[in-house]
Design a protein that fits this description.
By secondary structure, the chain is α/β, with parallel strands linked by helices. Helices cover 39% and strands 10% of the residues. Helix 7 packs parallel to helix 14 and helix 8 packs across helix 9. It binds pyridoxal-5'-phosphate.
Length: 516
């Protein structure tokens, strides 16, 4: 079976509680005679059990070793990732993660380090972080970077706090407005609001870029700054960026660059040269540390000129060939998290950059843009989808298609299209974002997707549009080839919804006899 058919095969796997039984065990743990009284609770001293000491052994599923191994291996075969097929999640930059970086970061000499370890004992790692900071500063056109923030959103919060403190230190308390275009990632207005700013929304023009007239009409004495992504979330490069910088700077505001997706421009153009003062980078997107599933990330924040003093501390420093953490903080916003940041994704970024080199990064950026535009060329003229905001302009790292024609004509929404993609053995794109595009399908292949993967994706979207025309109910009923059919999105977001496995566990804890 070829990749796509193989991934389409129907899989299902029972819960651990359904295949196990309490009297079975796959391991033999040593336990002492004292603990024997606490039937089944092995190796835990009684005082450690606390006031809720158990009278009985917990109802664990109990599996033999072969059952446990098969269960987990089958689960790994059911899961989908970038090592299985395309994951074109726009804005998420789900590129292939080179295995060499995975291998090297699994070295116990790195994994066994402790944050309280003496600096003398970790000079090699500090040197690596020092070089990484230099490279990231060079790539962004900034002077210094703090490696501390553990996520893109944390980098944004740090940047917004830096902007606030900068204005306060200059006695400009009235600067309480942060300008954010309506195409921005949701974390931008959230970070600005968390830092205490009033968020002012800037509309997008027909070209898909910041509406300059609207911008001019809102800047003024209350402007603290603007948070921008360039290329923006539509994949469109803000060609008026120098003018935007001029408008905001002349009003006394600062420019914050959301560099979560540097993928389309790294090695080609730098935020520092576009006029930005502060930048955060999602090291875990652009520099190939896997982040699907929620972490760990690294949202390095960089600054230039006077803003360097405000970066979160500590910064990495060097003197006479010795590397150390510099905790000096006169104006800085303090820490943004404990210790030094998430070291493993930082090391992966170091390895990614070191293995590609400057020219390689540039080629990767060009390839990612070529991939986006190859896909647009394949989709051109496909009935059912449209490319909103000047379709003649090339896109950079990503594009946003709209399934509006399908929704209008056949009542098949972007959500239905996404489910139908799952049936075809493909990962859905990012959905319903940015909010300014109706029925949005936000697609990003990155440099690592081979042409065949891009072609498969375009074919699948075409197939779905044809199906929507002939049998719209069939598309609305997707997915059928997945282990779980359509989930209730509203219920899934409800705090009371818990995993079925946990529900079974709770019911068994209560003594209910469940037929398995
Ligand atoms: C992913 C992303 C973020 C947020 O990054 P996290 O690491 O998920 O917090 C911010 N802005 C843009 C444009 C992004 O794509």
């Amino acid at each position: 079976m070829a990749g796509r058919e193989w991934r389409q095969a129907r899989w299902s796997e029972p819960l651990l509680h359904e295949i196990g039984s309490p009297e079975k065990t796959g391991v033999l743990l040593p336990y002492s005679s004292e603990d024997e009284e606490l039937a089944g609770i092995v190796g835990e001293p009684e005082e450690a059990l606390g006031p809720a000491a158990r009278e009985e052994a917990p109802l664990l599923p109990g599996l033999s070793e072969v059952e446990a191994a098969r269960h987990f291996i089958r689960l790994t075969q059911m899961s989908y990732g970038v090592d299985v097929g395309p994951v074109p999640l726009g804005s998420c930059t789900m590129k292939f993660n080179p295995k060499i970086a995975e291998e090297l970061t699994r070295d116990t000499r790195l994994l066994m380090l402790h944050p309280y370890q003496d600096e003398e004992a970790v000079q090699g790692l500090l040197e690596l972080l020092y070089k990484l900071e230099r490279w990231l500063a060079e790539l962004t056109g900034m002077d210094r970077c703090s490696l501390q923030p553990p996520a893109g959103a944390a980098g944004e919060l740090a940047g917004a706090l830096m902007i606030r403190k900068y204005h306060l230190d200059r006695g400009e308390q009235q600067r309480d407005e942060m300008l954010v275009p309506d195409s921005a990632h949701g974390t931008n207005p959230a970070s600005a609001a968390m830092a205490g700013f009033v968020v002012v929304r800037i509309p997008t023009s027909e070209k898909g870029t910041v509406d300059l007239e609207a911008l001019k009409s809102v800047v003024g004495e209350r402007t603290a700054g603007i948070m921008l992504t360039n290329p923006n979330t539509l994949g469109v490069f803000e060609e008026d960026i120098l003018e935007i910088a001029d408008i905001v700077h002349s009003a006394g505001g600062l420019l914050y660059y959301d560099g979560a997706n540097l993928n389309g421009i790294m090695g080609i153009v730098r935020p520092g040269d576009m006029g930005f003062d502060i930048v955060h980078l999602n090291v875990h997107k652009t520099f190939a540390a896997p982040h699907g599933g929620g972490g760990p990330g690294a949202g390095v924040v960089c600054a230039k000129g006077a803003l360097v003093d405000y970066l979160p501390r500590p910064l990495i420093a060097e003197s006479g060939g010795r590397y150390y953490w510099d905790y000096r903080c006169e104006k800085c916003i303090g820490r943004i998290r404990a210790f030094y940041g998430n070291i493993v994704p930082l090391v992966k970024a170091f390895l990614y950059i070191a293995s590609l080199g400057g020219e390689g990064l540039r080629e990767a950026a060009i390839q990612s843009v070529v991939n986006t535009n190859y896909f647009i060329a394949l989709m051109r003229g496909t009935e059912g989808y449209e490319l909103p905001y000047d379709p003649t302009r090339p896109r950079k790292h990503e594009l946003v298609l709209s399934a509006r024609p399908l929704a209008r004509r056949y009542g098949v929404t972007a959500g239905d299209v996404a489910k139908a993609l799952l049936d075809r053995g493909l990962h859905a794109p990012t959905m319903y974002f940015p909010l300014i595009v109706e029925e949005a399908l936000m697609i990003e292949f990155t440099e690592s997707e081979p042409p065949r993967g891009i072609e498969e994706y375009a074919e699948a979207l075409r197939e779905i549009a044809e199906e929507a025309k002939r049998q719209p109910d069939r598309v609305r009923g997707a997915p059928r080839n997945t282990s779980v059919a359509r989930v209730d999105d509203v219920y899934a977001n409800h705090p009371r919804s818990v995993t079925p496995s946990y529900r079974v566990y709770v019911r068994r804890q209560r003594g209910e006899k469940l037929a398995l």
